[in-house]
Amino acid sequence: MKKMLRLCAGLILVFFLGFFLAGGRDVLRKETVSRVTDWAADSVLPSAQQKEPNPLEHPDGITRAKRLLFLRDAVDECISEKKIVPTKELPDSLLQAIVAVEDARFYSHPGFDVEGIIRATLVNLQKGEIEEGASTITQQLIKNLFLSQERSFARKTEELALAVDLEMRFSKEEILSLYLNTIYFGSGYYGIYDASRGYFNKEPQDLTLPEAAMLAGLPNAPSVYSPYEDFLLAKKRQLIVLDAMVRTGMISEQLAEEAKIAPIYLAH
User: Fold this and answer.
1) How far is CA 201 from the centre of its chain?
2) If you placed Cys at 214, which of 2, 15, 132, 238 could pair as Cys (CB 3.0 to 4.6 Å)?
3) What is the CA radius of gyration of the chain?
């Protein structure tokens, strides 16, 4: 089964690479399809994710192809100045919380979640607005490392191609570690080390379940859910994360209820 997934992923990657080298991005940007593609792309893009402008957000075709072919080198270049905390030094509660709330099928999909895309599209069509996104942790990592916030099928296609490539070259543990160490947690904190120190004055490995759940809830909308900006909203988001952990079988309902009422002490 795993070999079959890798084969499918490889075929998709080849298709996308050929697509870009053939100038497919320019075709998709033609005004005749811009309104339709922007709306449809919105149906599978998260609406609240925030990040700093990326200087590599407008690469040429050679840069895109080079990134696909030498993705590990491109990732290393992006994280060379960052403090990386490996997953083995992070509490299980934090890893479980971020997977439960951001990408419940993280360990089984090949970089994109077909079921999640279908579900999000149906929900958004039913609501008539962007209510739910379907980006996986792998896609979010790619977007944060390399891409802009442009909402179009061209950018989404590049994101999917790079996500599949990333899954083929990195283990799930490496991807999760990269995600946690580069994602924005609000209040100026990038990466789990700075967020843990900044919010709780703790090393990441010392985080409790209530603290881990609160941090896991921030990347969805870091400027909104930061406990320094609005503690009540951060607390409500923490409850959502804990409920997701129960729903995915990662913790018991009793443990979640205990975590919900446990006091949270911020660093300042």
Assistant:
1) 25
2) 238
3) 19
